[in-house]
Amino acid sequence: MNSAIELLRITVCSSCPAGQTGLAVLISASLVERNLRARVVETECMSGCARPSSIAFRQQGKTAYLFGDVSNADVEDLIRFAALYLASPDGNFADARPLGALRFKALARIPG
To answer: Which of 14, 61, 70, 73 could cross-link with 42 by S-S, CB 3.0 to 4.6 Å?
Structure first.
């Protein structure tokens, strides 16, 4: 990976229930186990309160994603999404089925 390319940034809402129960730590550990390069950060309220818990994926030059209704039980789908996202040149997916349950939890797709 070119060092000038920004790492995938995964932002977890620390105000949401999953954020308060360690979702960021679970994701970080799973990324390390699978040797996926990403930076997991926590932030206060992401204003997804109508569908908590919120998590965002963003990388320079790629479409960004915001998911809601996420729980610690979604870690495997989140890690699968991270791997697919990292492999995608622009962050877009022709087929959402490999995203598992996350395809029903997308709140926003923001062009890169």
So the answer is: 14
For 87, the enclosing helix (H) or strand (E) is helix 75-87
* Beta strands at 38-43 and 8-13: parallel, antiparallel or unpaired: parallel
User: Which DSSP string do the residues of 1-48 spell out, in sequence order?
Assistant: --TTSPPEEEEEESSSHHHHTTHHHHHHHHHHHTT--EEEEEES--S-
Domain presence at residue 2? no
pLDDT digits over 10-60, tens only?
999 999 999 999 999 999 999 999 999 999 999 999 999 999 999 999 999
In the chain, the number of structural domains is 1
Give backbone dihedrals phi and psi of 23, rounded to 5 degrees, phi first.
-55, -40
Residue 69 lies in a domain: yes
The whole model's pTM is what? Answer: 0.91
